Known about the structure:
The chain is 61% helix and 22% strand. By secondary structure, it is of the alpha+beta class. Strands 3-2-5 form a three-stranded antiparallel sheet. The relative contact order is 0.06.
Amino acid sequence: MNNLIILLVVLAVVIPMFIKKISQGEVGLREFLGKYTDTVGPGIVFLIPGVQTLRKIDIREQVITVPEQQIITKDNVGVAVDGIVYIQINDPAKAQYEISNVFLAVVSLAQTNLRSVLGTMALDETLSNRDNINARLLESLDRETGKWGVKVMRVEIKKLEPPKDIQDSMSKQMKAEREKRALILEAEGYKQSQITKNEGDKQSKILQAEGDRQSQILQAEGKAQATIAIAEADAKSLELKSNAAQEFFKGQAVVKEQLSVIQNSLSGGNTKYILDSDILTSISKTFGIK
């Protein structure tokens, strides 16, 4: 029984020395007497105890924080800057053996490049060109860290703040700009409203004048038609009067002729004549005899 316990203890001590497990997202650097021999992937790795060793390297994408630092811009303004860098180890052997601490090296390099990039830019440029700064840092860091077996995926500036007095000045300037834009918009609005109002008045006057013109035309047409109707009525009346006069005078002429014949007839001796009643009626009407 004691021997079994001793055996189990020995196995518990020895097995971890020659059997290692590598998880997903990691690789192992196997060394023989301290010298790198090969790289092994996830799974179980067997080692010779006391002769071989294994270094695990995380090859997943990792985030490195770049501490805040004060940087002087091109126009001699101090700004507080920090950021983050996303990296991934794509060559574990180089990351382990080419440099002692790859993460510290990336942070130091990022700070140096930040000073170099922002030092060539004025304050206004740094505040309005973050994307450009990030792109320049990414290009520079990726180029420098390639020899360490590290791929820089992204660079982001988190904080970029000028001194408090400059922030206050910028705030006042922005407020003044907003008020200026508000006044301009108000003036433009008033201008447009006046233009619209004047245009409306103009159209109203045009419509009123057009209405007056049409009214005058209609009145003139009405008067003209009335004048024509009156003239036609007067002409018709004159025509009727003329016809009546012609008939009247024609009748008078006939009567006069009849009277002349009667006179001629009566002037001859003692001859008696009998006159037609129609002739007597005509004579009565002619001379107003009832």
